Amino acid sequence: MKRVVIFASGSGSNAENLIKFFQNRDNASVIQVLTNNPHAKVLDRCKKLKVSALSFNKTTFTETDDVLNILKSNQPDLIVLAGFLWKFPENILKHFPNKVINVHPALLPKFGGKGMYGMNVHEAVVANKETETGITIHFVNQNYDEGAIIFQAKCKVLASDTANDVAEKINKLEMEHFPKVVEKLLNE
Predict the structure, then answer these.
(1) What's the CA gap between 46 and 34, in Å, rounded?
(2) N or C: which end of the chain has fewer CB within 10 A?
(3) What gap in Å lies between CA 51 and CA 40, rounded to an integer?
(4) What is the pLDDT of residues 112-132, one digit of tens each?
(5) Are the CB atoms for 7 and 70 separated by under 8 Å?
(6) Which positions ≥6 away from 159 have C-beta within 8 Å?
(7) Sheet arrangement for strand 149-156
(8) What does the DSSP 8-state code read for residue 161?
(9) Residue 185, CB-side half-sphere exposure with 13 Å CA sphere
C-alpha cells in the first residue's frame, strides 16, 4: 500500500478530495496531513475523516529536522502540497527527491512565484485579460513554482469572468485531475 502525506495551509478542500479519493482504494491511502496553521479548517476536515493531522510552526519547519523526522517515520511514497503556502525546506527535498509535488492554480510558468497563490493568481489572470488559465501539477524544488511540470489542464477565461468565476473553474479542474495525477504517480 502506497503512503501519501499532504501539506495544507487553509481550508483543505483539495486535501479532503484526495483523502476521499483514496479511502476506497487498496493501492494507496493518505496517512497524515501536516499544516503550518493551527487554526486551519483542514484540521477539522481530517478529524471528521479520521486522518491523523498535526500542525507545526515556522521555526520547527525551517530550522530543525522535526518535520523531516515525522516524514521519515511515516515513510511516504509521495508528499503532496495541497494549498500549502510556505517554501519547502531543502532538508526535506534532499531526503525525498522527486517525491514532493504541488498543485498551482495557473498555467505555469505564468502567474507563479512568491505571493502567487489563491485569489492573488485569479485576480492577476483577470487583470491580465488572459483568455485561458488552468492548473499545473509540478515537482517541488528549492524555488517557488519552478519544479518540473507533471501535468496541466486548461479552461477558458471569458471577458466577463471575475476572479471568483476563475476560482470556481480552477477548483473544478483541481477536484477532477489532482487525485488522478497523484494516483498515476504512485503507480509509476
Answers:
(1) 10
(2) C
(3) 15
(4) 999 999 999 999 999 999 999
(5) no
(6) 129
(7) 52-55, 28-35, 2-8, 78-81, 100-104, 132-139, 149-156
(8) -
(9) 24
The three grid cell numbers given for residue 103, joined into one nine-digit string: 498543485
C-alpha cell at 43: 484540521
> CB–CB of 31/70 below 8 Å?
no
In 3-state terms, what secondary structure has residue 57?
A: coil
Lookup result for grid cell 499544516: 35
H-helix or E-strand spanning residue 31: strand 28-35
Q: Are 118 and 104 in contact (CB under 8 A)?
A: no
CA pair distance 51, 41, nearest whole angstrom: 14
CB-CB contact of 19 with 51 (8 Å): yes
Q: How far is CA 132 from the centre of its chain?
A: 21
Q: Which three cell numbers stand for residue 63?
A: 530550522
How far apart CA 52 and CA 34 sit, in angstroms, is 9
Q: Where are the alpha helices (DSSP H) in 41-161?
A: 41-49, 58-63, 66-74, 90-95, 118-127
Written as nine digits, the cell of 115 is 505571493
User: What is d(CA 100, CA 111) in angstroms, rounded to the nearest whole number?
Assistant: 20
CA 21 to chain centre: 15
Q: pLDDT tens across 72-99, in order?
A: 999 999 999 999 999 999 999 999 999 9
Residue with cell 489572470: 125
